[in-house]
Amino acid sequence: MAKRIFSGIQPTGTLHIGNYLGAIRNWVDLQRQAECIYCVVDYHAITIDVDPKTLRSASHSMALDLLACGVDPARSILFVQADVPQHTELAWILSCVTSYGDVARMTQFKDKSEKQEFVTAGLFTYPILQAADILMYRADGVPVGEDQVQHLELSRRIARRFNSRFGEVFPEPEPIVTKGARIMSLADPTSKMSKSAGEAHYVGVMEREASIRRKVRSAVTDVGLAPGETMSPGVANLFLILDIACELVGDATTVAELRADFVEGKLLYSRLKDTVFERLMDVLRPIQERRAKLAASGEVLDILGDGARRATAIAEETMSDVRRRVGLGSSDVG
Ligand code: AQP
Description:
Layout: E1 4-9, H1 17-30, E2 35-40, H2 42-45, H3 52-69, E3 77-80, H4 86-95, H5 100-104, H6 107-114, H7 121-136, E4 141-143, H8 149-166, E5 174-176, H9 209-217, H10 233-249, H11 254-263, H12 269-297, H13 300-326
Parallel strand pairs: 1-2, 2-3, 4-5
Helix pairs in contact: 3-12, 4-7, 4-13, 7-8, 9-12, 10-12
Adenosine-5'-tetraphosphate binds at residues 9-10, 12, 16, 18-19, 22-23, 144-145, 147-148, 181-183, 192-196.
């Protein structure tokens, strides 16, 4: 079992149910078992063109979303990445023990760069910054969705290479991937639910009930079956969302009932969609209510300030060890 957990999320756009069901609910659960460090990764957000006027408020907003989902500052460290600039220092050092070929193999760069007119070098090297985020805290477990597993493999390779060159410093982090690690778009169930694909392709955790109802009701169910499939990707995706939502609200019977009806060929997709909507709202409603209270309380800045102080103490300890081992600087001071 992992002893120290690290994970991050970009403050680009709104938290969606793919993020929540695939990763953030695990962040919340893991707080009971391990020391957890969670980060709003604003350095990652600037790998694409973001509006400097809104980035800080987007970071605050994402922190509020995470707190509303159950990240508990009394148990975990929650901070904004750029408040601990040691992350970029470690990323540079790690980039000097990372092979170009290893970074060039990352499939997410291929997908993301195709959507950009101006492709930054930062978009290419961001998996090294991600390795720095994780290794900085010597985390051994990283709760993520499936799309991040390849990056975790790179983080392990980087840790190994650093350790063999400079001595054992970093544990090799393992991905923690559970059910829901790949929630698909309701509008196109052959692609991952994602913010950048546009509003129709995600359901926001804080989205208005009427809008969620409309998106779930219009979910695509009939894209056809691939050879060997008994359930179309759209229906399978709805069942997956329902399954996790039922688990979260302690409903042990609904999924089995609907599955039995599906097998017997008597399940109306309108009933499946209505049930998904209802269970999803059972999960999201309390989160939305908590979010409203937290926003009104104005305590998010204090929480992030405290998180940054605690994260900096750990980061500085790692960095003074790393600088000394690599031979950087003129002395051990600073
Ligand atoms: N569809 C998904 N299903 C399950 N998990 C997912 N994650 C993202 N999409 C899904 C997981 O959420 C965590 C935070 O992700 P991020 O900050 O890297 O955001 P992202 O992957 O950039 O999310 P999007 O929506 O896909 O953004 P765009 O469209 O901008 O790329 C991660 O653990 C991720 O695995």
